TrEMBL record, chain A:
An example Gene Ontology biological process: transmembrane transport
Protein name: ABC transporter permease subunit
Family to which this protein belongs: Belongs to the binding-protein-dependent transport system permease family. CysTW subfamily.
PROSITE patterns to which the protein is assigned, alphabetical: ABC_TM1 (PS50928)
The keyword Nuclease belongs to this UniProt entry's keyword annotation: no
Native source organism of the sequence: Bifidobacterium platyrrhinorum
Upper classification of the organism: Bacteria, Bacillati, Actinomycetota, Actinomycetes, Bifidobacteriales
Listed GO CC annotations: plasma membrane
Region (Disordered): 1-20
Keyword Transferase set for record: no
Key words of the record: Cell membrane, Membrane, Transmembrane, Transmembrane helix, Transport
Membrane-topology descriptor: Multi-pass membrane protein
Cellular location(s): Cell membrane
Residue span, ABC transmembrane type-1 domain: 87-299
Transmembrane segments: 37-64, 84-113, 133-159, 179-198, 232-254, 279-298
From TrEMBL, chain B:
UniProt domain ABC transporter: residue ranges: 53-285
The keyword Cytoplasm appears for this protein: no
Bias (Polar residues): 1-11
Any Pfam family the entry gives: TOBE_2
Molecular function in Gene Ontology: ABC-type transporter activity; ATP binding; ATP hydrolysis activity
Protein name: ATP-binding cassette domain-containing protein
InterPro entries (UniProt xref): AAA+_ATPase (IPR003593), ABC_SmlMolc_Importer (IPR050093), ABC_transporter-like_ATP-bd (IPR003439), ABC_transporter-like_CS (IPR017871), Mo/tungstate-bd_C_term_dom (IPR008995), P-loop_NTPase (IPR027417), Transp-assoc_OB_typ2 (IPR013611)
Domain of life: Bacteria
A cellular-component GO term for this protein: ATP-binding cassette (ABC) transporter complex
Entry annotated with the keyword tRNA processing: no
Region (Disordered): 1-31
Keywords: ATP-binding, Nucleotide-binding, Transport
UniProtKB/TrEMBL annotation, chain C:
Domain ABC transmembrane type-1: 93-281
GO biological process terms on file: transmembrane transport
Membrane-topology annotation of the record: Multi-pass membrane protein
Protein keywords: Cell inner membrane, Cell membrane, Membrane, Transmembrane, Transmembrane helix, Transport
Transmembrane segments: 33-58, 88-110, 131-152, 164-188, 209-234, 262-284
Annotated source species: Bifidobacterium platyrrhinorum
Taxonomic lineage from the root: Bacteria, Bacillati, Actinomycetota, Actinomycetes, Bifidobacteriales
Protein name: ABC transporter permease subunit
Gene Ontology CC annotation, any one: plasma membrane
Keyword Nuclease annotated: no
Coiled-coil stretches: none
Similarity-based family: Belongs to the binding-protein-dependent transport system permease family.
Superkingdom assignment: Bacteria
Length: 310, 409, 300
């Protein structure tokens, strides 16, 4: 009773307000909107200069001749054998390292959550280490693996002493080697991304499943996996994008060979004055944007599909 | 409420009774020949579906704890009966339910369902189904897919299980929401889907673990009545756990009041209220006044008034006599013919619609030791019409216990 | 059946002659084994390279002699004993630390006021900012560099010089997605709108509302945005190396060509610094969380 009476008061005054001062309030509202927009000007101006402008330069450059005319000719280089093979290698390395990273990281997230306190020490420790290691790409990561399994690496020497086998000194720059190195930041990245997803699995689901007669296999195939699948796939796609765009690690491992797309871009940038290389860096960069954008759109679509019930 | 509840017998017994003695009696609003059919159906159903439960000397100790969450816990439930386990938090009521379901190991004792020992049987083979407090519906399935799940894992064919699931949704009044994802539903609807899902597998025992505590007051009342109605029609043996005494009183055939991992008293709701066996039960259910009196085990004298005592009462002087607010008479000072009674001063008057509750403070200082050195307080409840005209805070009154059986302890 | 004679569990023996089967406990044990194996393998993979790095810095790769020389070189700032010139390293470290500070300040100035006001005033603009701020995830740094090249060539000749500090403009873009998420989490966890309305109705001016009400409530997310930005800037190699400027990672790379032990030791130090930052963040947020809940408990 009292609640309904109390609610009527403000409504009545509100109704009277706008009719009396509608003209001035419209102006005030307009001014307020302008004010809000004005506050965002620095942000948008900044991103226009340092995010939009570089992107536009890449896209325009990809379609530009030496003297500024429009051309599609630059793209012909994209289909040369070594460019194609760089893309294939990049994609294979990215898929392989993301798959391993997603599976191992996913299992680790599960192991961290299951049967533990939500704020347990082990879990907090592992997630803090993971957030550091997920950022641990680049030169430092290359050093870590050179120290482990490089020519003079500790692992290399141990293996030699224990088993007498010599590790191929070029193993690190082989495909499996590169995948292993990439996994080093993919697994922690997966743990960070996927922990919240595993957290959202409620113990009641398992108990409900069991009390309805379901066994462990049915729980996993009918309940847990379908619920986790969308977030697992979108995490995998994010991992793919992160591996595909990684430059620093590969650059520190191979100083000369351009077996991955980012390394090829580096080469093209160094040779920009060469007339044969006109627009090549931009074309490669443009192609990378396209690949990553497709991956991101896919990930978005997967999340949206899951959004039906989330 | 239902017949079964009024007469303090189980639904199964009720049906049997009606059927044998008086085929024309009323059963759930049906008359004449129909009742014979209804009672027969009820009997058959409860015989095939409702298993009796016996929990014998069950001990539960959680890992890493030395406390017995269940301490030689004993419980017998007849087929088709609805028993409510009632108690405060940490009394072991949920533990008892989860042990019965097989969701917790027990460290001693045994559990029988329908005469069969299920102590070592895993959860998914016990044929019981559970409704949880909240969040137990599978979010990636629609309402009807949720209800189908139990049938699906049992290998029931697609069409058959869809038909049964729709029947169950119909029963809980959600047939039109069948294809919605459960997260789009209200809390009350979600719990009804959970109920339909639990019933779809035709469980031997239905377990309800505080199914209403996450809901709004209004929905809670609606849903608890619906649960009781459905339980009576299906005749499923049901164990319902709650901390809400009103809920318990409304739905139970019998209520077991739990404390420290044991059942203090198990009885029909009315018995529990009128004839509590222990102080804990008396104070847990309903309001009660703790008044000083002299007891010989049969009778006590409270405020100069003789009050008969319940079995199990203590003898001595003084003892605490537990008197319900409605079992105390109130009159203006000087207007009562009765010589017994104590003078008191009105503190607050609460009008609660049909009844009024009056908080009084006893004027005499001789009972101070009963209330930590403060004046003894007495709460009186009486029909609003019997309230002395113009009674106001500060008025002098006389309060007298009525000669209704009470517990002394 | 004869468990009573075998078991030493007095509790169970006292409770009943036949201990009921402990199905759930058996499952918990099974899960424990699986859990241990998974975590052991994962953590082993993550720790082996780190341990190797440490051993690598202590044991000379060719002679096999054990010494603390690389660490001494770093902490004394004198690499002569190992025949290494550390000036590059100090230059790079100085540049990176300065970049951290400038990037964090610039990022906070750019993001916090905008995000707060947009959060209160306009859902549409908030979505636009989210889209722009997370865009760098879709545009890899290596791609950005291709476009930034001409811009920086023009900037360094017309406006600034080739000092590495100007990399901060590119770095703000790189840290934007992480910073945005950290601040957005904070904004969504408090009811900014009500806070602002309450303090405005109490007569506080806008600057007062911002600095006395909103910032203290966002403190934790601002800290986390700053820490993650520092971590990103310290580890950045792509932009600096391709734009030809010096920072810590470029210095490490160059030093690595001549003395890999010192650069490995320095990498370990940088990593350790990162762990310390993150652990500090964890502890600080737990402390804030605890003191907040403590307050509400007292309030009740």
């Amino acid at each position: 009773m009292t609640a309904s009476i109390a609610q009527h008061g403000p409504v009545a005054t509100k109704g009277a307000g706008p009719s009396a001062t509608s003209a001035s309030s419209a102006i005030a509202r307009h001014r307020k909107e302008l004010g809000t927009f004005a506050v965002t000007v620095p942000f948008f101006a900044y991103t226009a200069c340092f995010l939009l402008a570089p992107t536009v330069i890449v896209v325009v450059g990809a379609f530009q001749t030496r003297d500024g005319g429009f051309t599609l000719a630059n793209f012909s280089k994209l289909f040369e054998a070594n460019t194609v093979s760089a893309f294939v290698t990049s994609i294979i390395v990215s898929i392989a390292s993301s798959l391993i990273g997603a599976v191992v990281g996913g299992l680790a997230s599960y192991a961290l959550v299951i049967g533990s306190k939500p704020n347990g020490l082990l879990r907090r420790m592992v997630s803090a280490i993971s957030s550091v290691l997920a950022q641990f790409g680049g030169v430092m990561l290359a050093f870590a693996f050179i120290a482990t399994i490089g020519i003079n690496g500790i692992g290399t020497m141990l293996i030699k002493q224990v088993t007498g086998l010599t590790v191929n000194p070029n193993w690190l720059s082989s495909l499996p080697g590169l995948v292993t190195v990439y996994c080093y930041f993919q697994i922690p990245l997966m743990i960070i991304i996927f922990l919240p997803a595993v957290d959202s699995i409620r113990p009641q689901w398992r108990e409900a499943c069991e009390s309805l007669g379901g066994n462990t296999f049915q729980y996993w195939t009918r309940i847990a996996c379908p619920i986790l699948a969308p977030r697992f796939i979108s995490a995998f796609l994010l991992l793919f994008a992160s591996a595909f765009s990684a430059y620093a690690t590969a650059a520190a491992l191979f100083s000369q060979r351009s077996i991955l797309v980012p390394l090829m871009i580096q080469g093209a940038m160094r040779n920009e004055m060469d007339p044969n290389q006109q627009g090549f860096a931009q074309v490669l960069a443009f192609a990378m944007i396209v690949v990553v954008a497709i991956v991101m759109l896919l990930s978005h679509a997967v999340e949206k599909r899951a959004g039906r019930w989330q | 409420m239902s017949l079964a509840q009024q007469n303090n017998v189980t639904a199964g017994e009720q049906a049997e009774h009606e059927f044998k003695n008086d085929p024309t009696a009323t059963l759930e609003g049906v008359r004449g020949k129909d009742v014979t059919k209804a009672a027969k159906a009820l009997l058959k159903d409860s015989a095939t579906r409702g298993g009796g439960i016996r929990m014998q000397d069950v001990v539960k100790i959680y890992p890493g704890s030395s406390v017995r969450a269940l301490d030689d816990f004993n419980l017998d439930i007849k087929p088709g009966e609805m028993v409510v386990l009632l108690g405060g938090s940490g009394c072991g009521k949920s533990t008892a339910l989860r042990s019965l379901a097989g969701l917790e190991d027990i460290q001693g004792g045994r559990i029988l369902v329908g005469g069969q020992d299920v102590t070592g049987v895993p959860v998914n083979k016990r044929g019981m189904s559970m409704v949880f407090q909240a969040y137990s519906l599978f979010p990636h399935m629609t309402a009807v897919e949720n209800v189908e799940f139990g049938l699906e894992v049992r290998g029931v064919g697609r069409e058959e299980r869809r038909r049964i699931a729709m029947e169950q949704l119909e029963l809980v009044g959600l047939a039109d929401q069948a294809n919605k994802f459960t997260q789009q539903m209200s809390g009350g609807q979600q719990q009804r889907v959970a109920l339909a899902r639990a019933l779809a597998i035709k469980p031997r025992v239905l377990l309800l673990d505080e199914p209403l505590s996450a809901l709004d007051a209004k929905v809670r009342v609606q849903l608890r009545d619906q649960i009781r109605r459905i339980q009576l029609t299906t005749g499923t043996t049901t164990v319902f756990v709650t901390h809400d005494q009103e809920e318990a009183l409304a739905v139970a055939d019998r209520i077991g009041v739990m404390n420290h991992g044991r059942i203090e008293q198990i009885a029909a709701p009315q018995d529990l209220y009128q004839r509590p066996a222990t102080e804990y039960v008396a104070t847990f259910i309903g309001l009660t006044n703790r008044l000083p009196g002299a007891s010989d085990g049969e009778e006590a004298v409270v405020f100069g008034q003789r009050v008969p005592l319940l079995p199990g009462s203590k003898r001595g002087d003084p003892v605490a006599v537990l008197v319900r607010p409605e079992n105390i008479a109130l009159a203006r000072a000087g207007e009562t013919a009765n010589a017994a009674g104590e003078h008191a001063r009105v503190e607050v008057i609460h009008f609660l619609g049909a009844v009024a509750r009056v908080d009084c403070e006893i004027s005499s200082g001789e009972y101070q030791h009963w209330n930590k050195g403060e004046q003894l307080k007495v709460t009186v409840q009486l029909p609003a019409g019997e309230l002395p005209a113009g009674l106001a805070p500060g008025d002098e009154v006389v309060v007298t216990p009525r000669p209704v059986a009470a517990l002394a302890c | 059946m004869n468990t009573t004679t075998e078991t030493t569990d007095t509790q169970a023996a006292a409770a009943a002659p036949n201990r009921p089967p402990q199905l759930r406990a058996a499952r918990v044990r099974r899960q424990g084994v699986i859990k241990f194996v998974i975590l052991f393998v994962t953590l082993a993979f993550l720790f082996v390279p780190l341990v190797s790095m440490l051993v690598f810095t202590l044991r000379h790769p060719l002679s096999g002699r054990w010494s603390l020389a690389p660490w001494i070189a770093i902490f004394t700032g004198n690499g002569e004993s190992l025949g290494a010139d550390l000036t590059v390293l100090w230059q790079g470290l100085g540049a990176s630390l300065a970049l951290c500070a400038v990037t964090v300040v610039l990022m906070l100035l750019l993001m916090v006021p905008t995000m707060v006001i947009v959060h209160i005033r306009s859902k549409a603009l908030e979505r636009a900012i989210e889209w722009v701020a997370t865009l760098p995830l879709t545009i890899p740094a290596i791609v950005l560099v291709v476009g930034l090249g001409p811009i920086y060539r023009w900037l360094s000749s017309a406006v600034f010089d080739t000092n590495p500090i100007w990399l901060c403009f590119a770095y703000v873009v790189l840290v934007m997605p992480f910073a945005f998420r950290a601040i957005a989490v904070g904004l969504n966890s408090i009811d900014v709108k009500t806070l602002v309305e309450a303090s405005r109705s109490l007569g506080a001016s806008w600057p007062k509302v911002f600095f006395r009400v909103i910032i203290p409530n966002l403190w934790q997310s601002i800290l986390s945005a700053s820490f993650i930005s520092i971590a990103v800037v310290l580890g950045e190699y792509t932009v600096a190396s391709l734009l030809g400027r010096m920072n810590l990672q470029v210095a490490l790379y160059q030093l690595g060509q001549s003395n890999s032990q010192i650069s490995t030791a320095m990498s370990l130090l940088a990593l350790l610094f990162g762990v310390v930052l993150l652990v500090a963040l964890d502890l600080i947020s737990e402390h804030i969380g605890r003191s907040r809940t403590g307050e509400t408990k007292e309030g009740k």
